[in-house]
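G-protein coupled receptor 26
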Amino acid sequence: MHTAELALSLLIVVIIVVSLLSNVLVLICFLYSAEIRKQVPGLFILNLTFCNLLLSASSMPLTLLGVLSNVHPGGQIFCQVVGFLDTFLTTNSMLSMAALSIDRWVAVVFPLSYHSRIRHRDAVIALAYTWVHSLSFSVAPACLSWVGYHQLYASCTLCNGRAVNAKTQFAVYTVVLHSLTFLLVSVVLCVTYLKVLKVARFHCKRIDVITMQTILLLVDIHPSVRQRCLEEQKRRRQRATRKISTFIGTFVVCFTPYVITRIVELFVTEPFNPYWGVLCKSLVYSKAACDPFVYSLLRHQYRKTCSDIINRLLKHSSPNNYGHQQENGKIGRAKENVKDGEVEARPTN
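Structure:
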């Protein structure tokens, strides 16, 4: 095994482990917290989590086997099913990210009318569209036998047709697929999150003006306090830019190399470096490992839920806590017995 194959195999293993653990943790938080379940974005996050989990359990292990063995893993029918899931889950996850960005845009730009504009019924309709959209682009290649093992990506995915007419149809399908998924979602993410950033910067400026006015009024304020206020202003502006850059940047970095390779592959006859194809596919897989942190686990609500779950597990597993509970129970029963004795000994009229 070459060093590049070993490095790619280790990368895929790390992606699988991180993706499974992080997405399972998001699912546990969703089931544990009633407050998360009540929120409309929770439906989009739940759909995205299921897509990432299925992708981690189906396509990623087969790609790992393809890199290690350099042969077609599994039978033809099994590979077609995995290839169908690969297209469906990837498309569905992209559209879920677009739905989350639209939800954030409405929440920030129209905060007072958010609950009337975005309801659970609207979220269900949006999810139904993502499923119909994804199924449409997944069923078509399966019916036309455009799904199989692709040597360049070492995975079961979309494959080029053999006949000239089939190649033309496949090229049209590929361009339309990536235009209505990757390109569409990229435009939606950029437009919505940049508007969110604009509103966030506007609010930061208002807060900065109020802060500076307060500092000017407090003449006897200590220089260190003033310096901390100025540093907090700078951190506030950087925090908003960093979050928006993370949302857009992870999507672009993870999907752009794979999409460009797919498009160029249609018009170039010379073979690509197989390690480049597997690396592009691994970047797509890495998005499934990044999404739980980008959209869920780094938020305060999910961190609090994780902390509550850990504290609850520690309390149940601690023997000292169990003995303390037994001691409290004995004291409580003794108090009840004393009260009962006082009632019995109390003279009646």
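Strands lie at 147-150, 155-158.
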